[in-house]
Amino acid sequence: MQIIKGITGYFGNIYESVTTISMGMWITFKTAFFERKVTLQYPSHDVIDGESKDASIPSKKKLKSPFEPLLGASQQIYKGPLNTQLTERYRGLLGYDELKCISCLLCAQNCPIDVIRVKGVKIEGRKGKAPTTFRIDYSKCMFCGLCVEVCPTDAVFFTRRFEGATFEYRTLIREFINPELYLERLQLAEVAKEKAKEKKRKKQESDEQEQ
Amino acid sequence: MENLVNDLFGQFTFLQKLGYVPTAAIVMLACALVVLNFFGLMSGLFTFFERKVAGWTNSRRGPNRVGPYGLVQFMADGVKLILKEDIIPAAADRSIFKFAPYLLLLGTALSFVVIPFGPKWIIGDLNVGVLYLLATGSFTVVGLIMAGWASNNKYALLGGMRSAAQIVSYEIPNALAILVVVLTAGTMSMQGIIRAQAGGIHHWFLFSSPFSFLAFFIYFISAIAEINRVPFDIPEAESELVAGYNIEYSAMRFGVFFAAEFGNIYVISAVAVTCFFGGWQVPLLDVGDLGPVGRGLGNFLGRGEVLIVLLVMALGITMLAWRALRAFVWDVRRKRAFFGSRFVRFNSELLVLGLLFAGGALVLAFHVPLRAYLPTIYWAFFQYLVPFLVFFTKAMLLSFVVLWWRWTLPRLRVDQLMGVCWKYLIPIAFACLVGQGFWMWFFS
Question: For chains A and B, what is the number of CB pairs under 8 angstroms?
């Protein structure tokens, strides 16, 4: 009885190893030649922000591995622009909407590494202060998201852009308000100041008359 | 080797003027150069192939950036390895530490002496060829133990010790499986073994008897164990020994270890092809040295040389037109200027095809007597190129299986490894040997 058990065990082991190994080999073979590749060949075969880059539009010929046409594996499907596939709360480069901004300086104060610099002036017809400077130094930013969380008007937000590489260090410092707008804002601020002064004077005058 | 020297000596008169001994010396040097370069190229290509297979089995694409399909990746890796700093630990046994990887490489390179590339293309057709192969395979043990000892590192030493135990054990089933082949072929010479398998696929030792069929699997498993490939790579088990024997090696010395390892893949596949898959014999055809087919094809080609030239030209024009059309459509869609367009950038074949075209036109215009050169061309083609390609294809298919196993099977434990060898492979190998003897007694 013991001997028979031993013999069946011995050949059973051989049988089991042969079947399991061939099963595993079939799985890897299937994955290697019949299944779709998951790789996104990002810069050369993808589209960013809806604009096609140089070699971006996937040519069918380029995407195939030499074995795919032989073995009937389907082509890589084109999954659309890469930034539509990012997660919902993806922390891309920071975006800024100057129309919403009230220059409360909360973002600059909350920034742990002083990346953001904000200046604002008071102008007419606008709630809070109007920003004259909004500058983010991307070379220091670590995308912690504190500024985004703290912004009361959602003026600072995360975009889905992630291609921030440049060839020069200084180009990483991003000005969000252009010089024309800056000058315009300053002029408007002067106007607002003068008006405020006039208002004050008139108020003073009216006060004096009352007295 | 002698055949090659004699052939060349007979073919070319300038060699006859030079004398036999200098010719032999030149041919030897040339052979050494060719084989060593082939070895280097093969091990390089195998690093690429391995990464590619790894990618495929993981649903990735593998390297595809350097060169066409990433084929030049291994050169970039090699340049990187050469440029890196070669660190030798202070407490290492310097001379042994330096020498160990080259010993490993030597073992692999020496195996190429008896590996046939074709019926006449072999460096040395030793009459103890298979025995010689088993002997050179043992260099691996010495190299690994030297590397493990000289590193003065406990992990490395453990790796070296394990490799000794493993390789010495697995040499037994390896040799027994090859003994089955030697028994059937009645010779140890590599070419002799291949010639014994002439006459179609059912004469290959893989299919000629059930015992040699089993012997193939025993040989293949134990050979993989002997070159420390993955299901049996306990000498460098990274989960236990960090990197095993090569833990202290860096830069090109580390690269040499891997050149030897990847060269070994080709060696074991080539030996398996020689012993079980009929070597350079073409499947499904009984063609001896490819004489009849060669002659038939030669006659056909000889009659229609103009036709062939025209055909090549037509093919070239079609290809060119198709490429150009595709590129042109691409440009027009994207409104590219002429320079910087794909039409210009991607039609470098234009030059090659233009040259071909010009050559064809010349042939047609002056009717160069191609027929005069045809015998030499066919001689080279059917004696060297076709058998080599057949052999190489078979070897590469088997090598693919080696890589495929690496990315399928998990590593064995040490006791399992020894169990597989001593409890399963060796008894079955002995049974195969005895069974093959009886088989031959009954059926021949």
Answer: 42
Write down the ipTM of this complex.
0.71
C-alpha B393, offset from chain centre: 9
**For B335-369, where are the alpha helices, taking DSSP H only?**
342-345, 349-366
- Is A134 in a helix, a strand, or coil? strand
Selecting from A29, A35, A59 the residue whose C-beta is nearest the C-beta of B59 gives A35
How far is C-alpha A132 from the geometric centre of its chain's CA atoms?
25
C-alpha distance from A70 to closest chain B C-alpha (Å): 15
Q: Which residues of A touch B426 (CB under 8 A)?
A: none
Angle at A59 between CA A55 and CA A64, to 5 degrees: 120
The B residues from 4 to 33 touching A (CB cutoff 8 Å) are none
Q: Which residue stretches of A34-173 are H helix? A: 60-63, 68-71, 106-110, 146-150
- Comparing alpha-carbon positions, the chain B residue that sits nearest to A10 is B424
> Sign of the C-alpha dihedral, residues A116, A122, A127, A128?
positive
Interface probe for B, chosen from A25, A26, A45 (most Cβ of B below 10 Å), is A25
Instruction: Tell me which chain B residues have a C-beta less than 8 angstroms from the C-beta of A27.
Output: 408
Interface with B, mutate which of A37, A40, A62, A77 (most B CBs under 10 A): A37
Instruction: For chain B, 444 residues long, give each residue's pLDDT as a single digit of tens.
Output: 666 777 777 777 777 777 778 878 887 888 888 888 888 888 888 988 898 888 888 888 888 777 777 788 888 888 888 898 888 888 888 888 888 888 888 888 888 888 888 777 777 778 888 889 888 888 888 888 888 888 888 888 888 888 888 888 898 999 999 999 998 888 888 888 888 887 667 778 888 888 889 999 999 999 998 888 878 887 777 777 777 788 888 888 888 888 888 888 999 999 999 989 888 877 655 444 445 555 555 555 555 555 666 777 778 778 777 877 877 777 777 766 666 566 666 666 666 767 777 777 776 666 655 556 666 666 666 667 777 888 888 899 999 999 998 888 888 888 888 888 898 999 999 999 999 989 888 887
What is the number of other CB atoms lying within 10 angstroms of the CB of residue B339? 8
